[in-house]
Amino acid sequence: MSFSTSTGNSSTPDLESWHSDPSFRGTWGIIATCLSTLIICVWSAIHVDIAPHHRNRSFFDKVWWLIVGLLAPDWLLLVAFRQLYWAWDLSYNAKKYFLVQEPAGPSLSWLQRLKKRARLGARQVVPSSWSERREEERILLAETGYGAHTGMPSTANTSNVRQNVWTMTHSYYAAMGGLVLDASLTPVFGTEVRLVLSPTILHFLMERVPDIIPDFPIDRIQCWSRSDGLAKLLLVVQLLYFTISCAARLAQNLPLSLLEVWTLAHALGAILVYIAWWRKPLDIAEPTLLAGDRARELAAYFQVVGIPLWPRAAGVDNHYGTPEANYLQITPCRTMDDCAFLYKGQNSVTLYPGQTVQVEGYAFTLGARIPDVINSIIFGGARPPWYARERNPDGSVVLGTGDLVRWQLAARAATRLGGLWQPPNAIIYTQSGGLETFDVVPASGSSFSPALGTIVVPIMTVYALPHFLGWNAAFPTPLERTLWRFASVMIAVLPTVFYVCFVFKLIGRRTKPFAYTIAGMLLRVVLIATGALFWTAIILYILANGYLLVDSLKQLSHLPDDAFLLPDLSVYLPHFT
Fold this sequence. Notes:
47% of the residues lie in helices and 8% in strands. By secondary structure, it is of the alpha/beta class. It has a domain at 297-437. The longest helix has 37 residues, at 518-554. It is elongated and about 95 Å long. The model is unreliable at 1-7, 120-158 and 440-448 (pLDDT under 50). Keywords: Membrane, Transmembrane, Transmembrane helix. The chain crosses the membrane at residues 28-51, 63-88, 230-251, 257-277, 451-471, 483-507, 514-544.
């Protein structure tokens, strides 16, 4: 058999099969690059808090904050730095109130630390000594919630001297809802059997009950986390690569699409969020449960003296309720003649205004105050406490078993605290914690410093600056160019407007204006005007962000030819020749 080759209508194949990458890109390439950078990086940058016991809730929380990060990245940035502030505050208080035991022997080598971390990650107790066995067992009890019903909970550190140093990772773990109290006897908001230790509660415990906070090493938290510094560093490198490619286009006089400008601003915001949450653990499934009698007593105590909080709109306008203690007058009861009732395990007690019931040596006198609307909204209709329900026509209230048990446990905790029923700083508790609870303007008396805004506002303004790269871009119409410029200016200016509104809002919460004085009336007018300005700014902020996104997508069909050329990154990135 023979083969013949015809060369009349055929061409000789090119032996040089190596071809360089094309020097151009397509419309889909622009869209795919921007969307992948946005979704992957913003999704990875979001570090949601720990749900009390709803493992599936963290995914939906992350989807919600992904939407916030895409449509309002500067607000996500503000929340991240707000939580960073709380972590710094907790670390400062830990250094102030925690005593750390000096290590008896030499520090562990990196190989020994790796072996210890592997052992902790497997949740297996392999103690090398009896003291280490006791420490591991105590931590596991705190972790699973198996505590004996004794005066000292299993999670407590019986000594004020701690074996492990409190780090920023500990502070983040605590601030993100990593520590919860057993509230099974007094459910929070009627349904939640765990009380999340908010930063304000943690501050209170560090100062007055430091031994109840678990003492565990940083390795244990790191092994629970699903990310480490290397993974975060790789994502930051990806964001920086996108930023460098955009800078290379500008340096080589190649125009950027508005979608790239919009993505660049979000990439910059994601990097700043990464910096704020660098030491925050990622996607921890379960919190550490503090069980035992004292933990349950403190859970009831915080529900009596604490301010209930209902988060709304990603923390933009949280609802603060009124503490239960404000509806009562609680004093030591020395004789039975001072009280109308003595609590001995009754199922219910009917109290009239001015009447008193004795519980654990304290006289709880019912006040004549009418329940406010905010408490009714916060607690809803699912087994609300007595002070969130409408009173009877004669002003009386019916105290159920849950109300009386809450008073009993709270009274025991107050006795341990020296009869403290009015904490010097505000204590805030929520149903499930979360990033939304980190209100920029906390309740009166909390440890908030307006100096935080002087740091965060310039950072939020820096995020808005990349939008000005589209100032002279190619727009389909002059009107769209004007609207883009107006929206860019709004995004840059509104953080300062928000900060001014927050400062006035803080002044309003910490000041009781006198309605019948000129100063009081002027303050009320200023607060009303500030509230109107705040919501107007919110509407403008949403419209501006929405327009920037829509216009960046619309401009893809009107890009100039130079926008499809690729820059030469070899000029800026190190490479081998």
